[in-house]
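fyi for ur records
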Amino acid sequence: MIFLESEERLSNDDIDEVESDLHIRLPIAVRSLYLESNGGIPSPYVFANQEVDTVVAELLPLKAIGKGTAGDAFKKLVLTHKLVPKSMFPFAVDGSGDYFFVDWTEEDGHVYLYRGDTAADNPLLDLEYTFNDFWRSLIPE
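which gave:
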C-alpha cells in the first residue's frame, strides 16, 4: 500500500500522545499503518463489496499542521455528535465525505463505513473486514 501526500512521519511517542489525548488505544494494525504513513491518498483506492462501491479518498493523518486529523474527527463525530459508539475511530474518508471507522476495542480492528446519506435506521455499515484486510482489498479504478 502506498500513500501519496502523507504528512510528517510519526513515532510511537506521537501515537501514544494522540491515544492519551483521546483516551483510546489503537489496535496494533492501526498503529503500524500510522508508523508507515501519517495520512495520505491511498494507491490503489477503490473499495468494493456486495453492498458498497466507493473510493477511499484519504487516510486521515493522526498529526498535521493546518489540516484536520483523525483525532479531530473522533472528537467531533464520536464524542460531540455521538454519531457512532465510542469504540469507533475514524481513520479515512470516501469520495462523498463519508467516514470509515475502525473499532479500536477489537484486537483485529474491525472496519465500518458511516453512510451519512442513507435513510436506514443504522447508517453504520459493517464492512466485514479487519483493518489490514480492508487495505489489502483496495483495487485500482
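Residues 12-22 form the longest helix (11 residues). thats all i got for now
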